[in-house]
Write a structure and sequence with these properties.
Number of strands: 11
Radius of gyration: 22 Å
Structural class: alpha/beta
Number of helices: 13
Keywords: Signal
CATH class of the largest domain: Alpha Beta
CATH superfamily of the largest domain: Nitrogenase molybdenum iron protein domain
CATH architecture of the largest domain: 3-Layer(aba) Sandwich
Largest sheet: 6 strands, mixed
InterPro entries: ABC_Transporter_SBP, ABC_transptr_periplasmic_BD, Vit_B12_bind_prot
Protein name: ABC transporter substrate-binding protein
Shape: globular
Pfam families: Peripla_BP_2 (PF01497)
Helix content: 40-55%
Strand content: 15-25%
Organism: Candidatus Desantisbacteria bacterium CG_4_10_14_0_8_um_filter_48_22
Number of domains: 2
Distance between the termini: 69 Å
Length: 288
């Protein structure tokens, strides 16, 4: 009986050790990584928000927030990286994303013996929060992650509660031009539009992100058009839509521009600000 008990306790100890491990991708002998490379802007933002920015040794050229991230060594863009520079930085772990980084590039990094952890697709606010929580666990910042997520959820629920009392308005969300790109179902953008009291006219497109013709937008006659800031092209896009004077969004001057950093970054610390910005576009009378 005692021998059985000892075996059970030994098994339990091993199981607890396994469950307490940070996650797949962390080096066996090192509890938490001290040298981190981030290959995605939202991961970089998340690491700094968690208080692990001092451990980041390399980032992409697109990692521009917070300002401190700009001072970090640049290892490449989202699609191409300098393997030599990455190896020279001696990272304990490299954080990448399934949607943002090419699999062949990540495979090459792994073939060099580098420790690469790839986050999956982000399809909802809940998914983004789960990834942020996982990131916190992997860098030893679980409590910080939970504290941040608790505050974010409070802000999110405040928007939901207010939007529940509002009439639904039709929304078109533009992510790109030439061709026009929008977001469909199974995206946090689609979820945000609904949460804010809107109906995404492109909800039923086949792909999560897809081309959408201007003619179809005109036919659907949205009450609101939201354009993600595209720099110099943004002003021209507003003029392009203004040509369709019969559309409700044009007649009522309901074409808005939102920050790409906030509205397209799957980091909860940015998403909540993006959600609040979208809410002001969809129902300015309630959220201004």
């Amino acid at each position: 009986m005692k021998k059985t008990a000892r075996k059970f306790l030994s098994f339990a100890a091993v199981l607890l050790t396994f469950l307490a491990a940070p996650a797949e991708g962390i080096r066996g002998g090192q509890a938490f990584p001290k040298r981190i490379i981030s290959l995605a802007p939202h991961i970089t933002r998340g690491l700094f928000a968690l208080g692990a920015g001092d451990r980041v040794v390399g980032v992409t050229t697109y990692c521009n927030y917070p300002p401190e991230a700009k001072k970090k060594e640049k290892v490449g863009s989202l699609l191409e990286f300098s393997a030599e520079k990455i190896v020279a930085l001696k990272p304990d772990i490299i954080f990448a994303t399934e949607e943002g980084n090419p699999p062949q590039v990540l495979s090459r990094l792994k073939s060099l013996g580098l420790n690469v952890y790839v986050f999956g697709k982000t399809e909802s606010f809940g998914g983004a929060s789960a990834q942020f929580r996982a990131l916190g666990n992997m860098v030893g910042k679980e409590k910080a992650a939970e504290k941040i997520l608790k505050k974010i959820e409070k802000r999110r629920l405040k928007i939901i509660k207010k939007a529940e009392k509002l009439d639904k308005v039709k929304v078109f969300y533009q992510l790109g031009t030439n061709p026009v790109i929008t977001a469909g179902q199974d995206t946090f953008i689609d979820e945000f539009i609904s949460v804010c009291g809107g109906t995404n006219i492109a909800h039923n497109v086949k792909n999560r992100y897809a081309r959408y013709s201007r003619e179809e937008v005109v036919r659907q006659d949205p009450d609101v058009i939201i354009i993600v800031d595209m720099g110099k092209e943004t002003g021209q896009e507003k003029k392009n839509w203004a040509r369709f004077s019969q559309m409700s969004a044009v007649k009522n001057n309901r074409i808005s521009v939102v920050s790409a950093d906030l509205a397209c970054s799957p980091a909860p610390v940015a998403l909540i600000e993006g959600l609040e910005e979208i809410a002001k576009c969809v129902h300015p009378e309630a959220f201004e």
